[in-house]
Every structure is written in structure tokens, then in C-alpha cells.
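Hi there. Long-time user, first ticket. I'm pasting a complex I've been working with (about 646 residues overall). I'd like to know whether the download I got is complete or cut off, because the file seemed smaller than I expected. Thanks.
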Amino acid sequence: MKQTTNKKLYEVHSWVGSITAILMFIIAFTGAVSVFGDELKVWSQSGLHRAQDISEQQIESLALGHLQTIPTDYHKHLQITPPHIGNVPYLVFLFEAETPETPEGEQPDPDFKPYMAFLHDPETLALVDQRAGTREEVLPFHSRDMSDFITFFHADLHLGNPWGLIVTGLLGLTLLASTITGVVIHRKIIAEMFAFRARRSLRLMYADLHKVIGVWGMLFHAIIGFTGAFLGLAFVVMLPAAAYVSFGGDQDKLIETFLPETAPEISGEYAQPQIANTLEFVAEQQDGDLLVFNLFGGTDKNALIEVITASDSENLNVRTHKFTAADGQFVESYGELEQLGGAAKVLDLIVPLHFGNFGGIAIKVLWAVLGLSTAFLAISGMMVWVERRTFGSKGNLSIKAYRRLSRLNIGACGGVVVAVMALFPLQRILQDALGQPTTSLGWAFFIIWFACIFWSMLRDNDYLTLRQLVYATAAICISVAPINGLVTGNHLFNVLTHGHWTVAIINAFLLLTGVLLMRIGARMPSQRPERLKDVATKQQKISAEAMAVPET
Amino acid sequence: MSKSNRKTVFSNPKLRALLATLGVFLAAIVITAGLPVYLPLSEINRIATPVLLFPLIWFALFLMVVMTERIKTMAVFLLAMVLIHGYIAYSAVV
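Hi, the file is complete. Here it is re-exported in full:
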């Protein structure tokens, strides 16, 4: 490859990386935490702490009970969702009614209530509430908590649709570009996989860390860049653009055409739907969790059942299992877009590949570790960029400007870690103990984050600031288990009797992380280990800057 | 090292930066809208393929813009791609 080509690619890699580094760290770090979104949802919602596995027979018994009591108009569609799916901390039975035909020239019936919902306690299965109305009216129970806050922050930085999604989508594109250009400019890939010289200069350590993380996680970074770009831009830019010609930009029409609703021919003859049998059949075939159970046609002989399960070790995509309801006969099993074939099959894999939810907890842990590596890739690249300009020959700005940039990096990136970890005790204190709304979590998060940035910008010693932020994160992590025990009564010592395993494992993990961070913090330098060469270069730059100041 | 005696790697950096950011993104969107008209595929794949190709189209155009020696020719090329695909998409709807 020509030297100029390599130099250009290096410049592109360097500039794209430095411009996006802080945002990339934030998105990648919160993404690594969001991988455990389901587990964090259980941790956040006290009602789900001791939730037992609900048996297929219990679900069938409740469903049949409701089918008998509600008007048959509502038999068009029954949707059953287990607790915590769709952010509702209840076992939900949602019935949809057939929309009555309105004679021409007349107004639709204003009293018509298209949905009816029954909500059951996830532990006792007692009926907690029942409502009728529009979908928004019957399901206003969407309980936002810290797990949602982190997940949505990762998805759109809380800037909303479309701007937040565009920003994260563009970051996906730049990650893809940085990964590919990085591979091309670092051609000695095999050698760089093992070249980590921690005891040499600081700049060399950052550079080696950047290369080692980049090379080992190359495929993952490219996948996350590609899928992240897709998830950010798909519904804002890509689908409207691609659907413009065929559907005049109407995405709903596009979805309706390719994914039509299931609607059985109603016979009028009664037959009891085999809810438990179909759920048991799917549970035997799949190890993916139940997401949604659909019954179309209620107790009609021709009713159909669809059981939708999460990705598992064999199937990367979310799968739908279809049955005839009356006899529980299995019809077919398919991925959401897989049935359409061709490129649509690939689209079906994007979500599981991005979220790492296709192979149980082991894949989730791997995805989280690799996600953290993407975050460190961004920040180590930025530190190399700053180091080369502060203590090396590169850069046109003053040393002060680069030092300021370095402080901003430490404050923004270290601060977001502190703020995310602070959401754990804040969830317990603000929401559970004091009953404050979710917005209070948001306010607290941003106040802590900006305080860290402000603190970092005020301090002259980056190394000491970083050490303090590590200690702050450690202290917060250690505080989670006792605060959780005090507020909810579920602590590490009564896990055997209370059965809140998910909560206990998360608390224990945070406790260990806190102890580990304390040890790391103690070993971190409190000032830059400057070498004579660096000091000389810095002195030269300062003298050159002083000489460049015009005399007044 | 001062700015004046440093040899610049990229010619016409302002135009290049504008094209690499806004120009390439806009071109990738318009190409994605125009591709379904002439791709010889089934209806779903005519929509799904450009959607799937979007990140790669963006990256290819981005790389072309940053690497080219003749940035003005590249600007004309991008404009031509936008106009042609914009016209194809528009004429298919009208």
C-alpha cells in the first residue's frame, strides 16, 4: 500500500476516533450494562424480586377464567405477557375486541372500548387491577426505572426520536469506519495481538492497549458498529427511504403488507384452547424465554395460537411457534422476518447480534465484556491522541488546550461510570424509599455526571482526578448491597429463604467490583509518571508557545 | 510544529469535511430510496437489501471522499448520485 494512502487512512482513523471518543465511550459503556437489561429490570422492580416461575397450567387456568367472564366480542385476540415484558411488572392478560362496523355517514361509537386488561401479581397471581379502554388507557402501568433509564440512554441518549437515534446511528457508522480503517493501518495484526508493554512509557501503554483491544475485539466492534447503525437509523432514515418508492414512505403499510396479522376464520363452534399444552410443547423444544402468548379467535374451533420466544442457543432470532388452538397441533415455527427470505433473513439477526441475548447468561457476559472493550478502545485511542499532542511533536493547539481536553475526557467518561453506578442506590432511595418519580432518577444522574465533569475541569492533576473517580465508583458499588437490604429487606444473608437470586447475584457482583476498584485505585498513580524525554519535549513546546506570543 | 510548515495530508479540507459528513450521509439516504426501483429482486428484498446495504454504502462513499485526490470530481460524482437516485425514486412514485 502506498505510504500516502496509509497516512490518509491513519489521519481519518485518528480524527474520526478523537471526535467521537467521548460519545462512543458513553454509548459503549451504557450498552455493556444494558446487555443485562432483563436482570436489571428484576433488580429494579421490588415486585419481581421473589417472582416464582408461573406454570403453564396456572396461565391456562387464569386465561380460561377470563375468557368465560368477558364478552365474546373481546375474543378476537388475547395477548398474555409474563411479568417485566414491556416494562409491566405484572402477568398481563390483554383482550382486544373486534371493531364494530360504523354505518356510512355516522360517527364511530365513542363508548367503544377496544381493549380490556387483567393484571395479576407475579408472586401470588392475585388479580391486581382490570381496565377497559384504548391500549394506552389499559396499559398505563409502564413503570420506568433505572434499568429503563440506562437502556434508553444507550439507545438515544435521552434525546428522543429522531435526533437521539440519528446520533447513536451515526456513532455506529463511525465505529464501523474506525474499525475498518484501524485494521488496514495496523497491518501487523498477529504481532499486535500480544504486544502490551505496560511498564514502558504511558503513551506506549495507551497505544498498546488500544491495539490489543482493537485487534482482539475487531469482529465484535464491526458487528456492533453495523448493527448499531442499523438500529439507530432503521426507523428514522433507512426504512422510510427504502419504503418511499413502494409505500409512499408509509412504514405501517409496509409492515402490514409483509407481516400481516393472524386472523382465523371464525366457525362459531366452541372448543377449549390448549394453552398449557402448547406452552409446554414450546418449553420442551426451546430454551428461549416466553415473550408473548397470542390466542386469535378465543374459544372458537378455528382459533390459532402463537407462542413467541426469545432467542436461544440454537436460534439467534426471536421465534414464533404456531398452533391450532382447539387440538394444540403444531403448525410451524419461524423467525419474524425469516419467512420473507433473502435479505430479510439477515435483518432478523441484527437485534440478537447487537444485544447478545441469544445464548443465555454466558453470551451476555461475553457481550458485556466486549462492550466494555469497545468503551476502552474509544478512550484509549483518545488518550493516545491527546498524549501525542501534549507531549509529542503533533498538534497545533497549546498544551493548555490539550490538557483541558484530557480533563474533559476523564470527567465525561469517568463521570458517566460514576453516574450509572449511582443509579443503583438512587433507585432504592429515590423511587422505592421516597416514592419519587423516574424523572428524579434522571435529574440525579445528570447532576452527578455534570458534577464529575465540573470537578475534573477544575482540577489540575488528571491522574488524581481519575483515581478519585475510581474510588467514588468503588464506594457506590459497595454501598448497593446494604442500601438494598435496608430498603427492600432482601439482602445477601436471607437469599436462601426469600429466593431473590437475581438481586443477590447483582448485589454480590457490585460488592466484588467495588472491592476490586478500591484495589485498582490504590495502585493508580496520583500524578503523571513523567519521563525525562517527555519533560524535555513539553519544555520545548512551552518555550515555542511563549516565543510565538506577539509582543504588545 | 507550526501550521505553516506542516505538509497537509488532505487537499481542500473544508469541502472534504463537508462532503464526508453531510454529503455522504445525504447521498447514502437518497441511494437507499432509489435502489428499490431497479434492483432485480422480489418486493421484500428490493426494500430489505438497500436497508441492509445502507451502512456499507455510507462507508464506501465516505472512504472515497476522504481518500480521493480530486475532491471536486468526487463532489460532482456525489451530486450526480443524489440527482439520479432522487429522480428515479421520485419518478417511481409520481
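A couple of notes from our side: The helical segments of chain B are 13-38, 43-67, 71-93. The first helix of chain B runs from residue 13 to 38.
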